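hey
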């Protein structure tokens, strides 16, 4: 291990890990969809880091926006008006489309904080205190966002504060054995019934908001059946509950549209975002609220605040990123290269018996690995981590969550680069088949 790696182990606590066995690679350079370690080894960034480097590495416009802002005014408190602060909010309202006309943005530093603040906004607006979210979800690692999270990363925050309840969201591949679906309409009905059951059991008039990842990310890249989210919204309206779409991972063209909800015919009341808003060049997240919620705070004090809310560097970078998505016609690239990804994943699914399902939408995919296709027994988490290690050793950098391998490259990737990356995956999966 090099000095830098050893020093990192000595002083840094690395996320989600027992520290002793770690051997953090030392990265010295990154450009486009690639990065390089200190030995000169080149990696395809096949997860866009943590599904946030949507515009890839070394984007000149983003770097310039940050440098210019640092020269002009690197920081001024959130109570003051400055050009990039209002420009970023205006651009995001526009990005969110007609449903959010007249809405406003509360800026945070990242995704967990976006959800924390959405929780408090929903609580203040509705006067209610319970929240529902899916078991198959990740909403962040701060305390409230951890409790909102349904998967095991929530356990470290439990028993936590009261008010957080979970329900089964759409995941037909892992539906209970006794449940069979004729078609998508059947799936929609089954999962909407699960939600309504939870709403009534928890007391519909106590629930402030239902939080959904519009397309579930870390926990499987699970795009809902097309009528599911409109059905969720209908249930929310029936019981006076707000719908919050967590677009932290799915937003900013990852699934093909600006925000993912725009392709599911649903209008959330609040959107939470981060990641692709600045592509990681500097941190920024936030909550976009619809007009009625914004108006509520005209006369009611909003009890939310952060020293770094609407940080000038983040806002400048966000304005530049939104312009870059347009200039580079990212929507078109996701449509074009997303089709290549889908075609290649069809082949991978057919060829490799270790693949249970390879789910995909846009440039967002997860390969769910199984020991046995018939029983769907998941590959163990240590084995899935071993697969990620093998991929990395061959230059395909990504991560796993449980038995799912993430494939979510920067949205600037070309069809050729994607095919090269997937050839490595194909080779590694052949080894896994043999296990
Ligand atoms: C859907 C979703 N929400 C929230 C978060 C938390 O964001 P952050 O890590 O920026 O706090 C993540 C992070 O991966 C996420 O995928």
């Amino acid at each position: 291990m090099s000095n830098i790696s050893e020093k990192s182990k000595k002083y840094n606590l690395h996320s989600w890990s027992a520290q002793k066995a770690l051997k953090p690679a030392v990265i010295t350079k990154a450009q486009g969809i690639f990065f390089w370690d200190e030995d000169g080894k080149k990696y395809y960034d096949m997860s866009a880091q943590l599904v946030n480097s949507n515009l890839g590495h070394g984007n000149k416009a983003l770097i310039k926006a940050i440098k210019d802002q640092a020269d002009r005014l690197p920081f001024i408190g959130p109570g003051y008006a400055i050009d990039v602060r209002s420009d970023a909010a205006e651009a995001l309202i526009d990005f969110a489309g007609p449903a959010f006309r007249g809405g406003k943005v509360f800026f945070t530093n990242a995704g967990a904080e976006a959800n924390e603040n959405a929780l408090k906004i929903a609580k203040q607006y509705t006067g209610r205190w319970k929240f529902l979210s899916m078991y198959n979800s990740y909403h962040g690692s701060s305390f409230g966002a951890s409790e909102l999270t349904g998967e095991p990363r929530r356990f470290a925050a439990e028993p936590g504060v009261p008010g957080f309840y979970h329900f089964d969201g759409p995941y037909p591949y892992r539906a209970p054995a006794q449940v069979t679906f004729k078609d998508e309409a059947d799936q929609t009905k089954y999962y909407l019934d699960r939600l309504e059951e939870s709403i009534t059991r928890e007391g519909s008039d106590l629930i402030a908001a239902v939080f959904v990842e519009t397309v579930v990310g870390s926990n499987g890249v699970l795009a809902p059946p097309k009528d599911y989210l409109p059905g969720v919204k209908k249930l929310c309206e029936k019981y006076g509950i707000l719908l919050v779409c967590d677009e932290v991972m799915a937003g900013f063209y990852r699934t093909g549209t600006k925000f993912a909800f725009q392709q599911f015919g649903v209008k959330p009341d609040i959107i939470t975002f981060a990641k692709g808003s600045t592509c990681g060049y500097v941190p920024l997240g936030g909550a976009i609220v619809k007009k009625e919620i914004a108006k509520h705070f005209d006369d009611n004090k909003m009890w939310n605040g952060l020293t770094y809310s609407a940080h000038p560097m983040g806002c400048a970078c966000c304005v530049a990123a939104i312009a870059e998505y347009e200039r580079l016609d990212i929507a078109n690239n996701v449509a074009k290269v997303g089709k290549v990804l889908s075609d290649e994943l069809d082949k991978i699914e057919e060829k490799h018996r270790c693949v249970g399902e390879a789910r995909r939408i846009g440039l967002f995919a997860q390969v769910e690995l199984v020991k046995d296709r018939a029983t769907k027994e998941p590959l163990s988490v240590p084995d899935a981590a071993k697969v990620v290690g093998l991929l990395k050793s061959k230059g395909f950098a990504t991560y796993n969550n449980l038995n799912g391998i993430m494939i979510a490259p920067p949205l600037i990737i070309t069809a050729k680069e994607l095919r090269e990356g997937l050839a490595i995956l194909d080779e590694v999966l052949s080894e896994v088949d043999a296990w």
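The domain at 3-55+329-434 is CATH 3.90.1150.10 (Aspartate Aminotransferase, domain 1). The chain has two domains: 3-55+329-434, 63-327.
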